Amino acid sequence: MLVDADRTEAIVFDLDGTLYVNRQLLTEIEWTAELLVAQGHGIVRGEARRMIAAARKRLADPDDREPPLSRVCMELGVDLKELHRAFEEFVRPERYLVYDPVLHALLDSLCDRCALYIYTNNNLAMTHKILALLGVEELFDKLYTIEFCWRPKPDPEALQLVLEDIGGPPERLLFVGDRYQVDLEPALEHGIPTLLVNETADLLQVHKLLGLLP
After folding, report:
1. Residue pair 177/202 in contact by the 8 Å Cβ criterion
2. What residues does 144 pair with on adjacent strands?
3. Residues 6 or more apart from 136 whose CB is under 8 A from it?
4. pLDDT tens readout for residues 123-150
5. Strand order in the sheet with 142-144
6. Long-range CB contacts (< 8 A, 24+ apart) of 129-133?
């Protein structure tokens, strides 16, 4: 769907994998999920890792695109709130993330043109911490984290609540994310333009879509 630069007034960003990419932090998140699955089933972490891999394969869509970790853990009996309490206890983004001047410049240059939002499966405390470490926390108008309705993406009801809270017609929005099935496909079904990114540098495409670059 084409972006109408003149009508775009708000941009909704995914967080993890979109505004930053860090394999070490991802590994820490996966380790925490394995720990909870192991505790819940009375097994060792190696067995939990295999259970998670099998659940991912089972829950994958027809194109073999993996589901979010939150949904995998829920499938394996992990309470979503317990999972996020464990993330807050064990995951330390400050070990891996630092101020990103390029990201700050890219987002800051959009603030005068559009309202900026985060819509993420991460929790509020972790989202605040990650954005602060990257140096961009103050640039966002509102954060839609898992606490907003405790329904991880992709979820039609959760997305509808987010859209109602932001307000306005679909064409005034642009959704930006790194996972088509999770971040973008649901938005497209609402007639919202989207942009798929794989690294921070891809965010320059937002500026091109809005006519901010030649």
Report:
1. no
2. 119
3. 19, 100, 103, 104, 107, 108
4. 999 999 999 999 999 999 999 999 999 9
5. 142-144, 115-119, 10-13, 173-177, 194-196
6. 129/93, 129/94, 130/15, 130/16, 130/20, 130/93, 130/97, 131/15, 131/19, 133/93, 133/94, 133/97, 133/98, 133/99
Maximum distance among all alpha carbons in the chain? 58
Written as one letter, the residue type at 54 is A
Q: How far is CA 69 from the centre of its chain?
A: 11
Distance between CA 103 and CA 105 in Å, rounded? 5
Does the pLDDT at position 64 exceed 80?
no
Checking if the pLDDT of 214 tops 90, the result is no
| Residue 106: its H or E element | helix 101-111
Residue 77 is encoded by which pair of tokens?
């009996």
d(CA 58, CA 86): 25
Residues linked to residue 118 through DSSP beta bridges, in sequence order: 13, 143
Q: Do residues 19 and 134 lie in contact, with contact meaning Cβ atoms separated by under 8 Å?
A: yes
At 100, phi and psi to the nearest 5? -115, 100
Residues 157, 126 contacting (CB under 8 angstroms): no
